[in-house]
Amino acid sequence: MKWFWGVGKALTVVFWWVVLLNLFMPMVNPFHQLINAAGAALLLIHVLEVLLFNHGLRGRSHRWFDRLQILLVGIFHVQSIRAPVGGTRHA
């Protein structure tokens, strides 16, 4: 499962690079508008994720870095920090 979250993070970062590239060198119509709209929608979703998962980050040592990563890759970072690390499992 850790591999899945890593691939999701990598693909999300690639998407943000496409959005930034589109801002400086717009693609042909209507693709530049669609990419900008998708980027704005994803940014709104990630801001909502930061607001929703803010309470769970209070016990973390680098809360602001975690918030920045949630803004960048969203739920993929939230799931990667919530994954149990070798602890006991309960039925």
Relevant terms:
single chain; 91 residues; mainly alpha; 4 helices; 0% strand
**What number is the mean pLDDT?**
86
Which spans have pLDDT < 50 for at least 5 consecutive residues? none
Q: What's the structural domain tally? A: 1
What is the chain-wise order of helices and strands? HHHH
Describe this structure in words.
This protein is an all-alpha fold and 91 residues long. 70% of the residues lie in helices and 0% in strands. The model has no long low-confidence stretch (mean pLDDT 86).
Question: Short summary of the structure?
Answer:
With 91 residues, the protein is mainly α. The protein is 70% helix and 0% strand.
SSE layout and pairing:
Layout: H1 2-24, H2 31-52, H3 63-73, H4 75-82
